[in-house]
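Quick one: structure for this chain?
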Amino acid sequence: MSRQSSEFNKAATEKNQLLAMMFEQKYGAWLGQRFFEVESLVDGPVLTAKIIIRNADKSYFYPIEGRMMFAEQDLKIDDAREFLLDFMDAYVKEYLSDGEETYLTIDWSTYTCEGVELQLRGQILNYKIEELGDQLLAGTETMH
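Got it. Here's what it folds into:
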């Protein structure tokens, strides 16, 4: 990992926390008991970002993932992060305002916006049910 990538990843952690709080304020009316987490990471020429909408027990866990080859797009790392997260934010707004009926594909799908190519994917998960299933299969399920 380059020094520039390492510095970006370190600085992005605080920015991601602030962005998650901004999303919660922006979309609070649609969230109920759910909240946001935001992640972004640079690994070489690839920028990845994740906006997660989830609840506390992870019975609702929706990781919205995005990635782009920022160097090929002729973008600086910070500009690429802002562009990718803005595009993902537009999807989040559509998803929440449309009654949560607009879905991404499970596999990466390519989008072009303002001449910039990026990819998104997403899948709603229920980790609480998966954990209970794992316990049941292992014979350690407890009744609550």
